[in-house]
Amino acid sequence: MTASNVPTDTAGDAALTEAQLAVLVDRFYDRVRVHPTLGPVFNAAIDDWPGHKALLVSFWSSVALGTRSYRGNPMAKHRGLPIHAAHFEQWLDLWQATASELLPAVQAERMVGHATRIGRSLRYGVGIGERTRGLGLPLVDVS
Question: What is the DSSP letter of 91?
Fold first, then answer.
């Protein structure tokens, strides 16, 4: 986010609320459901969308607000899904667009930061992490 996108007033510095998270999660997953690539994966994996959205509000509340209300194992839930690196990129792009549309710039930037870190962890956890070392050098397959 560039300096020109940051609001000059302090409205974006107000604390994020669980109500804002609920709207963000609801709108985001409505978009995921109809997305040409993400939709088929999510729709096949989720039977109860209202319940799933409520669970994810709890998850994001724990992440962003520190409520500790989420009980679950996101890594285990994602391990068996037919997902690839492109899914994570599309998911993050959609999250960023939705957060930027619904939240003040400062809050949107924070939520995108959280999502970026979580997405990176999930990618590694499901075995599709970036194949680079800390110095940015590609790993060589010697097998």
Answer: H
Name the band, by pLDDT with cuts 50, 70 and 90, for residue 137.
low
CA 108, 114, 120, 126 torsion-angle sign: negative
Task: Check whether 127 has a pLDDT greater than 90.
Answer: no
Instruction: Please give the span between the terminal C-alpha atoms of the chain, in angstroms, as a whole number.
Output: 41
Q: Is the pLDDT of residue 108 over 90?
A: yes
In b/e form, how buried is each residue of 46-76, taking b as 16+ CB within 10 angstroms? eeeeeeebebbbbbbbebbeeeeeeeeeeee
CA-to-CA distance for 26 and 59, rounded, in angstroms?
13
DSSP assignment of 21-88: HHHHHHHHHHHHHH-TTHHHHHHHH-S-HHHHHHHHHHHHHHHHH------S-HHHHHHTS---HHHH
Distance in angstroms (rounded) separating the CA atoms of residues 74 and 89: 18
* pTM, full prediction: 0.78
Which domains are seen in the chain, by residue range?
16-125 (1.10.490.10)
Tell me whether residue 52 is annotated as binding.
no
By three-state DSSP, how is residue 132 classified? Answer: strand
Count CB atoms within 10 A of the CB of residue 99. 22
